[in-house]
Design goal:
Helix content: 25-40%
Radius of gyration: 12 Å
Order of helices and strands: EEHEEHH
Distance between the termini: 25 Å
Number of strands: 4
Largest sheet: 2 strands, antiparallel
Shape: globular
Mean pLDDT: 88
Oligomer: single chain
Strand order of the largest sheet: 1-2
Number of domains: 1
Low-confidence stretches: none
Bound molecules: zinc ion
Structural class: alpha+beta
Number of helices: 3
C-alpha cells in the first residue's frame, strides 16, 4: 500500500510503498522498518504499525495523513 512518513530532518512528507500482504503485516507489525529517505538521503527508522495505519487512513479517507493526525490531538 502507499503510505506517508515525515522526514524528521527536513519536515517534508514523503509517500512510499509499504509491504502490506497479510503475511508481511503479521511479521513486521511490532518492528521498526528502515526507510531510505529521498528528501535528505539518509535512512530513518519508523514503526511499521505507525506507517501502516497512516496508509490505511489514506486509503479510507483520501485526505492527507498529516491532516488526519492533526485532528486526533
Ligand atoms: Zn530524511
Amino acid at each position: 500500500m502507499e503510505t506517508n512518513f515525515t522526514c524528521p530532518d527536513q519536515e517534508v512528507v514523503v509517500a512510499f510503498e509499504l509491504p502490506s500482504s497479510p503475511d508481511e503485516v503479521v511479521e513486521l507489525w511490532s518492528y521498526a522498518i528502515s526507510i531510505n529517505c529521498p528528501v535528505c538521503g539518509g535512512s530513518h527508522d519508523v514503526l511499521y504499525r505507525d506507517v501502516y495505519l497512516v496508509g490505511l487512513m489514506k486509503e479510507l479517507r483520501c485526505i492527507p495523513a498529516d491532516v488526519q493526525r492533526a485532528r486526533l490531538h
